Amino acid sequence: MNLKQHLSELREVDWAGLDVEGIATWPVSLKFLFLCLLYLLIFAAGSYLHIDNLKAQLAVRVSEEATLRENYETNANYVANLDAYRAQIAEMRASFAELLTSLPLKTEVPGLLDDITEKGELNGLKINRIDLLEEQDREIYVEIPISIEAVGSYHDLGAFVSGMAALPRIVTVHDFEIAYDSRIQPMLNIKILAKTYRYEGEGDGV
Q: pLDDT (tens digit, 9 = 90+) per residue, 161-173?
């Protein structure tokens, strides 16, 4: 059967009376046309789903590429500055080691109290009392409060605070209480809260 015969057969089909359940009785040309349309429909649906899947895969690959590119740039920058980072780490370690030498060991704290007393007396203060208060545990160090009671002038107090900065161990001054007493003028009653620190990881049995 040639094309002209197929077209003639299709023109004679009663399209309104077609029933899919009776497809076995359809003319050959109509069956062929139906199969072609069904194939095209299946092909179009498959292509659409396949293309959507490819698009999703492409989006994933594009995202992965952006992440890999960012990681590459970060690592390339790190490698390019690796020597500088190593130098900074070495410098930080040296600074940390130097700082540790300025913190008293547990066995050195009593001697530090003697140094503070001596520094006060050299600067004109009369140290009436100096006491260690309860230690405070911090994240990586121990804070050691020191209560100081003394008598002296404003000038003596200023010289004493400046002299504390020259001590070989770190001592910080925090709170002052100054009271005027007419019986000891021109001197003043002075209460000072100072603090020193000890590294939590020191190897002296702490």
A: 888 888 888 888 8
